[in-house]
Design a protein that fits this description.
By secondary structure, the chain is of the alpha/beta class. The chain has one domain: Rossmann fold (3-Layer(aba) Sandwich). A nine-stranded mixed β-sheet has the order 4-1-5-6-13-12-11-8-9. The chain has a two-stranded antiparallel ribbon with strand order 2-3. A two-stranded antiparallel ribbon has the order 7-10. Helix 4 links the parallel strand 5 and strand 6. The termini are far apart. It binds manganese (II) ion. The site of manganese (II) ion has 8 residues, from loops.
Length: 279
Amino acid sequence: MFSPFLLLRLTESNMLRHTNSDKNRKPLVGIPASVRMLELDMPFHGNGEQYHAAVTDHVGANVFTIPSLDDTGNALELLDHVDGVLLTGSFSNIHPQAYEGTIMAEGQLFDLARDRNSFDIIRESVRRGIPLFGICRGLQEFNVALGGSLHQQLHKVKGRFDHRSDESLPLKQHFLPAHEIEIFPGGILAELGHGHRVMVNTSHTQGVDQLADGLFVEAVSDDGTIEAVSVEAAPGWTLAVQLHPEWYIQETPFYASLFACFRRAVIEYRKRVHGSILI
Ligand SMILES: [Mn+2]
């Protein structure tokens, strides 16, 4: 039987080991969950593997899913442990009630739980300076969380392109290069060194209508659709893009640069807020 003294020493050494491994662990990126009704009509919380792979392989971080529960206080508590947050694309649309709009098209998939969770996480991450990277729905969430509104069907707005991908094609072909974007000077994208015109993929039905106060437009497509934004006065790194850089990262230097930039912000935050890191 262990003496109380030995037990104390074992506990101390366990604590020490835990502290060391915690200091040297990889960064952690939180991904707010999309919610889908799956088996027996139960809500499941998660996101596509493509996003997890992009974070693991190109940010060098571990991923955990932040559940989109009713009480978003739980999610905000989890932010104490992350070094960055990624907001993914999704087949669901933000419910127009979030920007006092009316539903313009029947048959849309909504995800109120994710809306609520993402909006709170965006506002809190911006406030705390946690690196925040939004993709597709993530950009739309940036805009709505901070007070902007959306076009629900861009292709029905006069003068706009159809930014949707062809649903009849196999999934991989949805994310092939489709239109150019114009990158404006003075932002994060301009610093990446890919010039001011870049070809990107497009797979979105919705887009920014009224831009939220405090968002800087990083890039637009030639029809004026906002393709990238950052938060002007944020204390930390923020970027959201309407394209899908999680596809064809190896083959597309611009997409690789986006994740490399997020990676630098995540590592810097990890060092500054959570102590030293060995990666
Ligand atoms: Mn587009």
